Structure to design on (302 residues):
């Protein structure tokens, strides 16, 4: 009888890992990883077919924290892997280069989500731009910064792109089609910074210009419900109709303590919706408190 070692039992073919059609990603500093986990996981609850990716300084995470993230289905991408293609961009803008890395993996769509969001419903409005062939999709919001006329003209002449005047792209949820990506952000940022001389304002305007540079016909405008901002007092708010993704209030963010002064300012300033939004975020976050990172400044979740 022939020796069995020369006639091994046929083995099943090892299938390569499946590349998800959509990967949702966000960026957070190591001390702000937990809110980003809440954003990604609440989205993943409604879309288990999405890949989830967190861009952060992986070297600053403990091995225990990194393992918790991996076991929860979140890929950790180190900022150093993006730095080589980010040219002179500040680290706060590195995440806008992630779609290019995902495209190289064969991912068809990359979905940028803000790290301070919580998702309450499915993101069905994304289906239309995915079918229609639009290169980019985002909601719009009122412009909340102002550029002087001379600065506006300088930027337009240098880049051939007009700075939004009334409605600007909402950065919190942006869908990119990998086959139509553009790589102008480093040049746009350098130009805007040289004109304005103000780094924070230049970053905001540069992302706006990068998104609008695709052109009007290339953009699919998503409904505001995908990134609802809990600002001010909203009459007749219908959460199930108006809120799919909720951007957490920022003063203070829900993972920081709330004082009586905050409550007084919210009620007197007719901004009471922010208090309700805070409670919504905390309720969603409580389901993921087991994934809290072990840093001393991690948020306190009830």
């Amino acid at each position: 009888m022939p020796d069995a070692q020369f006639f091994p039992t046929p083995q099943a073919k090892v299938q390569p890992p499946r590349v998800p059609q959509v990967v949702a990603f966000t960026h957070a500093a190591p001390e702000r990883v937990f809110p980003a986990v809440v954003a990604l996981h609440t989205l993943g609850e409604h879309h288990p077919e999405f890949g989830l990716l967190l861009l952060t300084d992986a070297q600053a995470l403990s091995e225990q924290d990194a393992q918790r993230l991996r076991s929860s289905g979140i890929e950790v991408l180190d900022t150093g892997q993006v730095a080589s293609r980010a040219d002179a961009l500040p680290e706060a803008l590195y995440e806008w280069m992630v779609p290019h890395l995902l495209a190289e993996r064969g991912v068809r769509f990359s979905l940028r989500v803000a790290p301070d969001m919580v998702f309450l419903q499915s993101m069905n409005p994304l289906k239309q731009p995915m079918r229609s062939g639009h290169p980019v999709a985002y909601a719009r919001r009122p412009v909340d910064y102002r550029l002087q006329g001379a600065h506006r003209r300088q930027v337009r002449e240098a880049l051939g792109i007009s700075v939004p005047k009334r409605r600007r792209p909402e950065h919190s949820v942006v869908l990119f089609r990998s086959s139509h990506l553009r790589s102008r952000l480093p040049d746009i940022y350098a130009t805007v910074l040289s004109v304005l001389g103000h780094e924070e304002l230049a970053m905001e305007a540069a992302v706006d210009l990068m998104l609008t540079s695709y052109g009007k016909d290339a953009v699919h405008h998503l409904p505001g419900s995908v990134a609802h901002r809990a600002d001010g007092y909203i009459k007749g708010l219908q959460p199930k109709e108006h809120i799919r993704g909720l951007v957490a209030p920022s003063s203070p963010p829900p993972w920081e303590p709330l004082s009586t002064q905050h409550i007084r300012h919210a009620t007197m300033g007719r901004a009471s919706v922010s208090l309700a939004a805070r409670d919504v975020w905390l309720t969603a976050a409580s389901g993921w408190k087991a994934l809290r990172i072990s840093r001393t400044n991690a948020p306190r979740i009830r």
